[in-house]
Queue: 2 jobs
Job 1
Amino acid sequence: MVFASIACSILGVIISRMNLSSIGFTMSHAAFAGAAIGMFLEINPQMTAIFFSVAVAALIGPVSDKAKMAADATLGVLFAMSMAVAIFLVSYMQYSGRGLSAGSLLFGNVISLYREDIYALAAVSALTIIFVLTFYKEITSIMFNMKIAEASGVRVKLIYYILLFIVAISVSLTLNIVGGLLIFVLLVTPASIASQFCFNVRSMFIAAPLVALSISAFGVWAGFEYTLPIAPLVALLLTSVFGVSVLVSFKRRINYKKY
Amino acid sequence: MSIIELEGIYTAYEGGDKPVIRGLSLSVNPGEYVVIGGPNSAGKTTLLESINGLVRITHGTASVCGLDLRRYGNEVRRKVGYVIQNFYFDPFTPFTVEEVVMMGRYGKMGLLNRPTRSDREAATEAIRLLGIEDLASKTIGTLSGGQQQKTMIAHNIAKEPEVLMLDEPFSNLDFNAREYLQGVFKSVAKKGTPVLLVSHAFDGLPDIRIHLVVMNKGRITYDGVCDAGEVESIIRKESGGGLRSSSF
């Protein structure tokens, strides 16, 4: 959960600024569909989740470019396709008596992780941090304005495609823990909370993972202590904190003195 | 030797049923102050975006800063400063003026390179030149339209471009600011960097010889040198017998 929080919340800062928040549910449902394909074919669902997510991620940029559509619209199309594939397979397996429950894919299972899963998540967190540190100036430039970045000679497409790839990998590995539906919360909500208080992007990159980490840790503790489902609990906690932060944010306050 | 050399270029947007620019030829030398005028939809913005490689040239030859534009678009963009026409930054945009100005150099620096002392000095100098030192630590979304405009000009000047192109840079500015900026552009041109200016406001043009280009329906209808005072009358004349009120 720690590694998932770090990776998703850092990526969330980038995608929410780029108005690509829907990449969260598209990729999470692509991972969901990939995992369903794995279960249907009786092969490792995590591998198929990664494969299918990367394939979908690889389509977003070129399809948007070719169709001259906003990436958000392409994400909507791919989301619907992924969801349809997943529901089709899950329903088919249920009808045919293979008894697949979508519950573990939708809501995740924090307590039944293998050591390899944890190593993979640590690697994804490290990859995300290295990506942001290495391409910090290009990423911030794109976050500011894609057209202006391109006009300045920044390699916008290269960075954009790497970003999609890393989101795909992170989401598909995180699927096991928080589940397809709730990854979206980790991608979007910590960044949204940070945006209520941070005036510059550097502090957002620090605040978002700290928020995600502390709330996730608290959620895991409370889940064990009071025998509650951890992933939905963390999602509800993050959403509550977001609600409170909107109410108390000082960024929208008018700070002038009457002389 | 010309720094921009366009020969019979055509450009078209995907899905468009006719080219936006048709058989256009233009030559710009170092240090020239080029004013591009003409009615709306004449192709002025498309011309700037073609020179910057943002719009694909379908036919003809184009060389900018000694590079074949059709092959080295990104390399050209690293050398050319381009202030785009329309931008809006919401109040929550988490970037300060200082950061935005520095971003102007990011393409030039190349991948993986960090800003050096000379990059920081160039950004500071651009901020000073535009007179926005007191705004440096403010977030860009909290500024007025005119202040954002100045920030974006500083963003491009910090780049130390080999060509500076500006699309309607005076749209949010009062007369004093326009006159001040014309002085800034004149000093840029004096140092040998050609300035290409698309504008509908000709007051305060610097008192130097102007390379005037008038466009209409994707073609150049006038390409010559004149005094600042003649610019508006030539544009009116060359834009097809008087401009419609919507054009200015």
Job 2
Amino acid sequence: MTIKQLRQKFLSGDMTPLEYMERILEIIREKEREINAFTHLDKTDTLLKEAEIWTRRYKSGEDLPPLAGIPVAIKDNIAVKDMPLTCASKILQEFISPYDATAVKKLKEAGAIIIGKTNLDEFAMGSTTEYSIFGPTHNPVDLERVPGGSSGGSAAAVAADMVPVALGSDTGGSVRQPASFTDTVGIKPSYGMVSRYGLVAFASSLDQIGVLARNVEDAVLVARVIAGKDRYDATSRELTVKGVLESLDTVDGIKIGVWKELNEHPAEEGIMTVWDEAIMKASKEFPMIPVSLPDIASGIASYYLIAPAEASANLARYDGVRYAWRVLDASTYKEMVKKTRTIGFGKEVKRRIMIGTFALSAGYQDAFYKKAVAMKYKIMKNFEEAFKQVDVILVPTSPKLPWKIGEKMAPSEVYKADLYTIPVNLAGLPAISIPAGYVDNLPVGIQVIGRYGEDEKVWAVADKLLSLWR
Amino acid sequence: MKYYVHIGFEVHIRLDTKTKMFCSCSTEEGEPNTHICPVCLGYPGALPVPNKEAFKYAIKMAKALNGKINETVVFARKNYFYPDLPKGYQITQHEPPLMEDGYLVLAESGKKIRIIRLHVEEDAAKTLYDSETGRQGENAFLMVDYNRSGVPLAEIVSYPDIHDPDEGVEYLKTLQALARYLGVSKANMEKGEMRADVNISVSTEPDRLGTKVEIKNMNSFKAIHDALEYEIQRQIKAIETGEPIYQETRMWDESTGKTLVMRRKETSDDYRYFPEPDIPPFKLSKEVLEIEPEYTNLHDLYKEVKSWNIDEKKVGFIVYSPDIYKALKYMIQKGVSPKFAVSMYLDEIKGQLEKVGQQIEEKHKDWTLYIYKLIEEGKIDNSIAKKIIRKAITHSKEPKDIYEAEFSGPGVSEDDIRKTIKGVLAQNPDIVKKYKDGKKSVFGFLMGQCMKAFGGKVPAATVKKLLGEELERV
């Protein structure tokens, strides 16, 4: 059932927001113990009361906002007033946000009920949702496997029918890869389309709030709600989106590009088979044109310098001075900061802070950070060239199928799994991951990538492709 | 041996905007931690949005320093840990700064001091140490007031073109006055609205700089002067005794009158500057770029004030006091003689106000003009003028009210004056006779009698004139 259908039922009285909320809370009660999607759930009383208010308002026949009474879950690195904002980190474990992120504020204004916060890799650094003080999130498709990350909690909650939609954040694939791993849809908007105000910064030039849902229509609906220039985010922009409840664009005349160099950087065999079939099916509806993106494999090297460099500064504020948790057994400022950060941050976060600090250091900045930025521009140029021939480009979302929780992999191996998603963030482009098929019951996602600001086109094509592939 | 001293300054001046550099919190002082928000506290998820108003102030100062303006603003992050730095980095301008390669003409000497750069940045919060929190020993801790966090600053960095403490103070006074002339900053050192760090080196060769030592923690011109004096002597002594001079940061200790080592720099600080990703570079608006400073060269003003032929000692004070210079200039343009303007406005009115703990204001210009007019018209003289001013100040009234109530109208019109004089003459027929017989020296006695009769309300010159006339008529 889509949000539009749900809304129809609320309007007709077939179902009330209260009944729906009760159903959802029942599903969460039933499944949460084994999935561990949430880091925080709002009180049942509060949620039921809110749903009841919407139930009454639907009955009154007044004009209601597009998400009236729809439950939404929020990744726990996005601020919701009076709820914990932990980033799954010990260092923020006691932090309650005093304010709403702009995206959350917009959701609330659109009538959404924020039911709680979802699990993630600490500070969104990871692709498995295992690096969390709340423990790993399990993939509803196969509980022994990771749901992807870092927005694994949001993806799992959506996949397990705990919520129709959830917000995530995508810095190097953190919405799209979990969508791929959990057989859901994940939108990563153009950089600047959604305000980052209230999104805890990981890599500011790459971070973007995104949406996870079970179908394109729902994801788009929510993306349209949260889009728009925000005076609290100087990097936000007014990009064209349609009215929240309007239908998607037509896809007449759209030309699809297919990444040519995939064979040089192939995904696992099973994924390649799904890919080939998907391309075949798509070619019946769209002209398919091979396009070259020669440098995008260098994206990993570029990304894993730029992102940690920015993170090293972004995470400097967690010093125990003003808020959240701090060690109590320190006698000087320096000792307090040192101990708080040493104990408060997990291993992967500290690794990235170290890499980033090094990459920005005098004497190394030219060789590392500045080179990485130059590569970012080269990748942008690659896309620019390719988009001269086509409207959108297809690339698999992940080179790997969801792996087992606890599987030992070197950090560089895990980083390599971001190969297909990272270039999109570096170039600031809109993309969406949609389910394209299965390998032994494990889902495979494919990304549709578009020109900057052409999010609507990407969504329309994705919706059409999903109907061909499902 | 001859020693060569090189002094350079890093001066921060607080730009006088209503709201902070990257959020809409007030820049006013207030109870600690009352003008704060998620942005200036560095809360998770908060983002900076530049206050473009600040550039209206900064551009004026930048242009007044005669350098090249970089029209595209690029902010950068300067990374370091400090309890008063909420984000763990300061948002500042690195490359390029708002202005580079400028100069400042010193007000008195007219000497040019080259300026390396002026850039815009945010202030840190204010740390209160044990002495200010009143907590000592076991209970001691630092307290931080974030009201100042994020207040816009312009940092002005000079070349080491300054060679002695007096010149150093002249540089700072010129800079401070310029900021005030332009309305860019109140630039009060005691309030921290202007802060100066100094670099100083002593060398035995004219063309080579010595080891650079930085001195911090001076919050008055006197402290800076004393610190420079002390540091020059300390370094000369070190050279003479063959002791090493380290590249280090020293702190001025007011109580002992010495500079003390704060930290020694083995290597230069690594602030890991990189472009601020939260603020895309932006071009300054046409409106901002078209702003021109009303003043650039205070030495021109100095020469002008000198040409007024007033007390030499007051020239510097006037030039360094924009409000006073502007007021005097206004009065002079209205036809008041410079000497009178200075003696009445500066010595008399300002002096009397200060005695009762008040400050000179806009309206006191008009007081001066009014009094000047009365004197010009012969209605009062200087001593009456002073009486009027003092009464106006002590009774919180306007000079006009005092004059009209006490020094004009019944009793002091020309007819009344003549009448009173006639009375005095009638009472002293013998003296009048002596006068008429040619003993002119008795005029003084009669004059004194008349003045007494007027109770000091009529100008002596007027009395003298009318007394003379009346004596002729007898």
